[in-house]
Design a protein that fits this description.
Number of domains: 1
Distance between the termini: 24 Å
Order of helices and strands: HHHHHHHHHH
Radius of gyration: 18 Å
Length: 257
């Protein structure tokens, strides 16, 4: 199981800024997801400072651990593309001609579906799961992130348009609908993530081999979803049919709802 040194969001932001400068200088399409992620991380930091979470210190630790999954994958990709995790190999290796929105969507799928459950497991130890009050606080703070992300949808849509997003007249007409769909997809993904955290926790209790097997299943499901999104055709329609998240089978029943 991953162990990460918690440095603080300021350090994460600086690492992201450095990497964004390098990707921008190289005209690497990975800059689109990283730019969105950087702005979102700043928004989360501002929300923590404003006291919008019940346990800001825990949210900070969680956000740092979460970001490290992506930053480590990006560093691996830049050293040797074949060494990055499979889901990130697909996302980072997406054709450069895709619009900025597509690169952001691929990065979000990889990071939310595969990295987020593992990051949450890293900062919700078994004793927190056993304490109903603590676990409820963790879940509420997990859900509060949705409000931060939802508040960024319109601004990120505009930022991607300025970055070269390709919009038809119909796209512009449907922009409010698509923004609403983005919010709905994020809510659905977070519910799925929480269920996957429950499944990973159960596997953690069973031992390292069981946990490793479940993580491998999660990585395979996440990679399959990114591969599906890379197929030609209406991505939003496929998301509407299949959902944003990739749920792990949960048998026996999860230890929490």
């Amino acid at each position: 199981m991953r162990v990460t040194m918690v440095l603080g969001l300021g350090d994460v932001v600086r690492r992201m800024e450095q990497q964004l400068g390098a990707l921008t200088a190289e005209n690497d399409p990975g800059r689109f997801f990283l730019g969105t992620y950087l702005r979102t991380t700043r928004a989360v930091a501002a929300a923590i400072d404003a006291g919008r979470f019940e346990d800001g210190r825990w949210v900070t630790r969680w956000d740092v651990v979460f970001a490290d999954f992506y930053l480590d994958a990006l560093a691996a990709h830049r050293r040797d593309p074949g060494s990055a995790p499979p889901v990130w190999r697909l996302a980072f290796g997406a054709p450069g001609h895709l619009p900025p929105e597509a690169h952001v969507l691929l990065g979000m799928n990889a990071h939310i579906n595969v990295d987020l459950p593992q990051a949450l497991i890293a900062v919700i130890p078994p004793q927190d799961v056993a304490d109903a009050a603590v676990l409820a606080r963790r879940r509420r703070d997990h859900e509060r992130i949705d409000h931060v992300l939802a508040s960024r949808v319109a601004a990120e849509d505009a930022a991607l348009h300025r970055a070269g997003g390709r919009r038809t007249s119909l796209d512009r007409l449907l922009a409010p609908v698509n923004r609403g769909a983005s919010r709905a997809f994020l809510r659905e993904a977070r519910r799925t993530v929480w269920g996957n955290v429950s499944a990973l926790h159960q596997a953690r209790l069973e031992g390292p081999a069981s946990y490793a097997r479940r993580v491998a299943e999660l990585e395979a499901a996440g990679a399959a979803r990114v591969a599906d999104l890379l197929r030609p055709g209406p991505v939003v329609l496929r998301l509407a049919v299949h959902g944003f998240g990739v749920p792990l089978p949960q048998d026996p029943p999860p230890p929490w709802d």
